[in-house]
Every structure is written in structure tokens, then in C-alpha cells.
Amino acid sequence: MSGEPIFADWEESWLERRAKVSPDAPALIHAGQVVDYRALAEEVACWATDIRAMQIRRGDVVAMLHGNAPEVAHLLWALRAIGAVLLPLNTRLTSDELVHQLRDGRARLLVHDAAFADTAEVVAERAGRIGRASTAGGRLRNLQMPRVEQVATQLDALALLYTSGTTGRPKGALLSAAALRASAVASEILLGADAGARWLACMPLFHVGGLSILVRSCLGGGCAIVHDRFDPHAVSAALDEQAVTGVSLVATMLGALLDARGPRPAPASLRCVLLGGGPTPAPMIERARALGYPVAPTYGLTEAASQVATRLPGDLRAPADGHMQPLPATRLRIVDEQGVVVPAGAPGEIQVCGPTLMSGYLGDADATRKVLAGGWLRTGDLGCLDAEGRLQVHDRRDDLIVSGGENVYPAEVEAVLCAHPGVSEAGVAARADDVLGARPVAWWVPGAGTDMPSDADLEAWCRARLASYKVPTAFQRIDALPRTSSGKLIRRQLPSL
């Protein structure tokens, strides 16, 4: 490492510099193949040359419709070298949704793998005058590049990521290289920087959490172990066999992993299990801790380049989902409906300020001004800060249920239901009520290998643990809850089930 800091203030290409500092260190592992930083930098240089030959220039937007694979890293770092912008497309979107993001994002090129070739051809044609390139065989191949007058978009961003759309039509958040770097550096300072880190990427790389693993690994000199998708048995094997030091999961993934491993404890190499995507039931956290998993509940969002606040893995204080420490250089505050900062312990809207924030929403100045008023990101999420300035998240403001003048946080009710041995997942949403305005209603997924609870059983369980106005008025059993590709519960879809 030549005595150089793990995170240096590099002006040149991050990858080129990393290849000079630690050329033989593993950069990527995928399907048993190990690629070191020297080889990765050489491959990326070839990709950058090919992309320039397609008339892609600084500020142009290049979309990606691709499964988890090393080619995602190749494209990310090639665009970083050019100064172009990566637009990762959610592979679960419909054609209409993909076309909207291609048009709204002003993409000039769509890069795809063989699995999405047919979809890419259709959406590129519908979006109009967008080129296509395939990564089939591991190399970039130009399929179609329309001859169009060069439009200098000059977007100052490394990535353009569309929000998940849980509260309306997605908007494109512009994340600069500086914001993503600040997030990576702050995360490693908080959790502990280590040039030998091996971070397992089993969540989609088209999400900010997946991309952040690639950025953090390159800047810190660690290795990203890329899985095609989340498979609990494959993740379990990787934890045991590949000296994984960190992994990012959501609650449903953690539950599946614990079920797959049974009583086996976490391996000694594992130092952090980041839990994002919404609240994790306290019983699940305690179950993981009892087996030695260093769980670290975390709060983040696309507009802040992923992480905002994280509970340190060794923090065992109650509540299990509280005491989340803001990243270094990130400031948090809680405000009431009038925008007045509230005292410690009082609930309100979570607002974020710091170097990780997006520069704005592409093409939507009004929305940008509204959400970044005064330099503070208005998250729309509800929570509180304790006396130490640590965060506890309650819910999204849009999901809050006001019943007879009382606030009901769906996540709180869901956590109680998930603690029942017969319930594996739960979702709570509002149902209109003529007297109280709204009442909570629950949808739940049965647990495996347990007796099926009745509605009366679940109601009694909730009444013993919740105030009466928080107890759901109905319980509906379903096979699966609606979730985004990142695992977040889509509560607005529950009433239509």
C-alpha cells in the first residue's frame, strides 16, 4: 500500500489510481473468477475506448439494463473515466416505465446483457434515437448508434438514479462523484476502514446500495464479491468460504439467510451486516445477534447516496432499531409540520444535510427546490433523535395513519405482528372510517412450520402489546407482500390486495 491512506483525495480516475497503489489486490469476484485491480483497470480502459467510439462524451447519459455482473463495474468506471453519467435501470420495470426513464433521463445509449436483449431493443426503439450496445461475451459490442447531432447535456454527475416510486412517479436523482465518494469515505470511517474488506453484493447493482459497494470497494482497496441475485444458500456458502467481511441485506433477506443457516453461527470474518430497506423486526435482530451476526440497522435513501445513519454492530441498547449514528459530516434534524426543529425525543420529519446529498432532480427544478429547501433534504420520513443525536425511524409521512386524532405508525404495528411466531411478514395500511377518519388494517404472511393463528389470536396478541387505537381492525392472510426490487414494502398497494 506504499503507506498511502486507504482513502486519498484523488483527482485522477479512482480506478487508475487504485490499480497503481494495489495492482495485485482482488477487485472483483464473480462466479469463482477473481479479477485484480490491474486487470480491472485494463479492461475498463478498453471499455472507455469503445464507448468514446460510440460518440459518448462528458455529460452524456448512458443507461444500463443488466443483471449483477462484473460488466456493471466495467461500465461504471468507464463512464467515470469519460465523465459520462450512468443511468442504472431497474430490471423489474415494465416497458412503459423503462421508456419513461430513458426519455426523461435523456439517455443516448442503452447497454444491456443477453438476458434483456429483447426488452432493450423494444424500449430503445420506443424511446427514440437511443443507441444500443450489448455485453454478451463480456465485451462491449455496438449494436446500433443513431447518427444524431451531439447535444451537450453537461450533467455534472456520476450516476442518475430514479427513486423507487413508492410515493408516486419516480424522479431522477443526480448524484455527483463527490457525493458518492463522500458517502463511501464516511461509511468506512464510521464502520472501520480496511483495505482487505470483502463486501458481498447480492442486492441489485442498479440500486444505490449496490453501486455504493462498488464505489466503496474501489476507493478503499477492498473486494466486491458479486452474486447474480440473492440466494440464501449461496450467500451462506460465501460467508463460510470466502471470508466475507460485510454484506448488505433487507429484513426479508436476513430472515431467509437465518432460516437457511439454522443454528450455525456467523463466521468470525463477518464484521458488519447492514440492514436497510425499512424497519427490521426486533425479534429477527435479536435472533441474528444471538448467533453472532454483527447486525447494523441503517437508514438511507437514494437522494443521499445511500447511507445516512447506521447503528454500530456492537451497540446492544434498546430499542433494537434505534441509536443510528449519522455518518461523519452528515447532520440530522427533526422538524414539526411548521418546519420548527423539535427537541430530543420528539417525533417529526427527518431532514438531512451534508456532502452526500444529490445535486437535484433532473429536469424538475420545482421538486428540487421543495425537497432541498435551505440545503436540507426533506426526506418525508418520520423519526426522532435521542439526546446523543442518534436516529430512530418511525415511518414515512405518507404512510402515517391518523385515527381519531392519534398517530399510528404502520412500522410499529408490523413489528409487533412479526414478533408473533405464526407470522413471517406483515404490512399495515389505512382503511377509511366514518367516525375516526381511518383505522389500521393488517396483511400478513404465515410463518413456515407453525400453527396458523386466527384473526382473534392476532388481535389478542396486538392488544397485549399496543394501545387500542393501534390495533388493526382486520387481519388478511396473503402469500406475499408487495415489495420493490430493493425489498421495501409498498404499503400503498396493500388496500388493493
Structure characterization notes:
29% of the residues lie in helices and 26% in strands. It folds into three domains: 35-155, Rossmann fold (3-Layer(aba) Sandwich); 177-397, Rossmann fold; 400-496, GMP Synthetase, Chain A, domain 3 (2-Layer Sandwich), CATH 3.30.300. It is an alpha/beta fold and 497 residues long. The chain has 13 helices and 26 strands. Helix 13 (455-463) links the parallel strand 25 (437-446) and strand 26 (475-477). It is globular, with a radius of gyration of 23 Å. Helix 1 (14-21) packs antiparallel against helix 2 (37-53) and helix 4 (95-104) packs across helix 5 (117-127). A nine-stranded mixed beta sheet has the order 2-1-11-10-12-13-14-15-16. It has a five-stranded mixed beta sheet with strand order 4-3-5-6-7, sandwiched between helices.
Keywords:
globular; 3 domains; nine-stranded mixed sheet; Rossmann fold; GMP Synthetase, Chain A, domain 3; 13 helices; 497 residues; alpha/beta
